[in-house]
């Protein structure tokens, strides 16, 4: 029988309590290599290349295809919300965190590779968005286990830096992956069969490259970080019974540490806005500001450089001033930059005697968006890792994914809604820009909900113990 601990019953505040071994640099590098590899899915597939391909004229037009993609991602979010916390809990108690990281990563790689069969015709749009949406589901499941490992490879004194280093490696991996994609497929430096544009072969081969890139760089963490011991409340429970244990744990956390729940809810909202910045960033660059695919990739390369610098710098600040201050500053910066892009749009202006085009607006303030996204994401992960009770990081990061995905319809839905409302009111091709407004609303709501939440160090977490 499982029962909640009495109010005030606590355990060591974090898995961070557990390890002199956690500081091992080799494990940090192996762990961060997964972030490096994941850029092939995040940057290449879902942000700057493949989703831009899916929303091109070959699939029926930017506005309609963008709405279909947004709907598919919203459905995927519902599946993640339902399943993520229990999958995280079961990997904790069953001693299978590393195993499930490997299984889910392999599933993402397979689904990514299957995107090769998405030919540039409207009838293939549904296949393309389905593969991307399913890839997002398994990527989030893998991310639950990967994020939970942060506590295994860091110490209380460097968790911010390690988290920031991981995010930075992800962005830098994105730069290298995008450069390879640009030189081999999009704007090839030499003729080879992969440079053929017939039936968009070059873009479809990008999916194969991305699948291999992710799979290869995900391998080190599977060998370097040890598996968890099989122990803890819930070991051996059936899948449905795991939900009962999950509910009792949530009640125990809320009773003794309500601000942990408040953080999960607040971060869910602003993280959905952060995800939308990257998901729809390349689409807006192409559809609203007229970027060619090669221009989108060039922007992505510089954007990843800026984002990596922001994430690493934010990690150092996190360990000094705390994650809450870093998150608030980042969200304010995002709101300012996004509002400027929305207001100025693709018009031409003269500032201080210089001509200012729409592409200039997007280059400058789009890079500011990149600068602030990384620290917000990294500090949010480090924030929760500081709160996770020993041996229960997977479950808490599962809740982190669930609360995020429970509201993950917000940014895609508001992005789509704003486009739909604007379509009859603005000139053709201008409606897409107003999707930015939906993203900004989500970021602002997340900031307002987050402001009253206490920072780590003032919050204790109750646990559910086996009785």
Question: Can you give keywords for this protein?
Answer:
two-stranded antiparallel ribbon, Growth Hormone, Chain: A, mainly alpha, 70% helix, 467 residues
How would you characterize this protein structure?
- It is built from 15 helices and 4 strands.
- It has 467 residues and is mainly alpha-helical.
- The protein has a single domain, classed as Growth Hormone, Chain: A (Up-down Bundle), CATH 1.20.1250.20.
- A two-stranded antiparallel sheet has the order 1-4.
- Strand 2 and strand 3 form a beta hairpin.
- Helix 4 packs antiparallel against helix 7.
- The termini are close together.
- The N terminus and C terminus are likely disordered.
Amount of beta strand: under 5%
CATH A-level architecture: Up-down Bundle
The CATH topology is what?
Answer: Growth Hormone, Chain: A
Say how many strands there are: 4
Radius of gyration: 22 Å
Number of domains: 1
The CATH homology group name: MFS general substrate transporter like domains
Strand pairing plus helix content: what structural class?
A: mainly alpha
Low-confidence stretches: 1-23, 458-467
Question: How many helices does DSSP assign?
Answer: 15
| Integer average pLDDT | 81
- Arrangement of strands in the largest sheet: 1-4
List the helices and strands in order: EHHHHHHHHHHHEEHHHHE
Principal-axis shape: globular
Kindly state the percentage of residues in helix: over 70%
Measure the end-to-end span.
6 Å
- CATH class reads Mainly Alpha
Give a short account of the largest sheet.
2 strands, antiparallel
